[in-house]
Specification:
Distance between the termini: 27 Å
Oligomer: single chain
Strand order of the largest sheet: 1-2
Strand content: 5-15%
Radius of gyration: 18 Å
Largest sheet: 2 strands, antiparallel
Helix content: 25-40%
Shape: elongated
Length: about 70
């Protein structure tokens, strides 16, 4: 799992560091600026479940539609 960054100043600094358009992230920054609580997430996902149940060593073997640089759609 992972925990989302909830510090407004850190988020703004990172957006500027990456030279991203601040207005595109305004809504997200407002969530942090005007009240948000620390929250985390964990997504097991079907591929990870299949990998675990089948004893497969790598998740790429359980993905029904392989992701490749030249292949955008199944």
């Amino acid at each position: 799992g992972s925990q989302r960054e909830d510090d407004y100043d850190k988020l703004l600094a990172r957006i500027r560091e990456e030279k991203l358009p601040e207005q595109a992230y305004g809504w997200y920054l407002d969530l942090r600026k005007y009240g948000s609580v620390p929250h985390s997430g964990f997504g097991l996902g079907i591929e990870r479940t299949v990998t675990w149940l089948a004893g497969i060593h790598h998740i790429r073997e359980a993905i029904p539609f392989p992701r490749m640089i030249t292949r955008l759609y199944p």
